[in-house]
User: Which sequence fits this backbone?
């Protein structure tokens, strides 16, 4: 079948074109996409694009076709896509680390070659083995999670990356407990979800740090108790860390970096007290100069991928929190775009104008 798709072609270059999507193999599912979230990782990935691939890794839609071996969903089901695609048997899957699956995982990369082709018949890859910014996605069955009826698809698509990453970093990785103090550096799509997860687990103080006043307002709506506007020239947030440390009467128990800014990769260490936990959530991959005294004393520096997502455990929990009004999703969708408006969506993301932008298909 033909599907209008956003295809990355070269560094910072993409086009909206028709692709041909095959019928599913026995363990694959074809999903008619209805909503695709726009994430910082989309921009990072596009900046280094070298082979053509369908963009997007956050998405929700309706099942259009299932392979013969698919049992957990049927044609017409509303579904969410997750990029924790686990084989269930490799060394990582055996210890429960679904996000690190060595066979189908994000780093292994597993879009079946030839399942998506361009007009000339050349195979086109899929971002995170999903490729959600398209009318249709062909994915492995492990990537598909059935959605309850009460979550709008434009809100549900955020669960597949921004929400899971933020929530899981707090709950699964750092295991923040009630009464703790939490600092969140950067209040974009992921940071706002760290804030709301900290609220949900009962953190006593949630300090939100950003350089944009509008983002801090949003952070307060999500549950931040102390918004802190950082000056743009505070390069490593050293001055802001001193201010926050004074404010809390000592460092925080936990600090999360959600800014995607390479200079801030080690900054959460500045905000935690001895024995505290620093969590770089945005996965910055850059060479930085490290002052090792930042790690003193007894601090933990955790690098969770995708909030250590285990789809079978985590998504039902998120659905329930949404139903109980504790997890705010609809409020996070501040901008909507059509597929051809993707350039505007990426510009708004870069300009920090969105909490979450969603491409509605
Ligand atoms: Zn993402
Ligand atoms: Zn595996």
Assistant:
């Amino acid at each position: 079948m033909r599907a209008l798709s956003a295809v990355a072609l070269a560094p910072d270059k993409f086009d909206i074109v028709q692709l041909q999507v095959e019928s599913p193999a026995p363990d694959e599912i074809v999903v008619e996409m209805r909503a695709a979230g726009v994430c910082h990782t989309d921009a990072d990935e596009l900046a280094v694009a070298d082979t053509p691939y369908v963009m997007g890794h956050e998405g929700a839609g309706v099942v259009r076709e299932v392979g013969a071996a698919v049992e957990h969903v049927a044609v017409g089901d509303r579904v969410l896509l997750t990029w924790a695609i686990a084989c269930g048997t490799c060394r990582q899957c055996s210890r429960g680390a679904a996000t690190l699956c060595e066979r189908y995982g994000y780093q292994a990369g597993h879009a079946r070659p030839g399942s998506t082709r361009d007009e000339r018949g050349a195979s086109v890859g899929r971002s995170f083995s999903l490729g959600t910014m398209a009318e249709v996605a062909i994915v492995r069955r492990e990537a598909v999670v059935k959605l309850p009826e009460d979550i709008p698809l434009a809100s549900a698509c955020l669960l597949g990356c921004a929400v899971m990453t933020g929530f899981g970093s707090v709950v699964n990785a750092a295991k923040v407990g009630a009464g703790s103090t939490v600092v969140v550096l950067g209040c974009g799509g992921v940071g706002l979800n760290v804030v709301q997860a900290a609220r949900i687990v009962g953190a006593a103080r949630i300090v939100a740090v950003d350089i944009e006043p509008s983002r801090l307002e949003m952070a307060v709506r999500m549950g931040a108790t102390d918004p802190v506007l950082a000056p743009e020239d505070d390069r490593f947030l050293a001055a802001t860390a001193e201010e926050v440390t004074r404010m809390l009467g000592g460092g925080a128990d936990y600090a999360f970096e959600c800014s995607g800014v390479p200079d801030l990769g080690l900054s959460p260490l500045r905000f935690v007290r001895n024995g505290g936990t620093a969590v770089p959530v945005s996965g910055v991959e850059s060479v930085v100069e490290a002052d090792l005294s930042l790690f003193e004393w007894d601090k933990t520096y955790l690098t969770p991928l995708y909030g250590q997502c285990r789809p079978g455990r985590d998504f039902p929990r998120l659905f329930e929190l949404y139903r109980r009004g504790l997890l705010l999703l609809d409020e996070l969708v501040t901008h909507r775009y059509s597929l051809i408006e993707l350039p505007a969506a990426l510009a708004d993301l870069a300009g920090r104008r969105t909490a979450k932008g969603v491409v509605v298909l």
Observations:
- The mean pLDDT is 96.
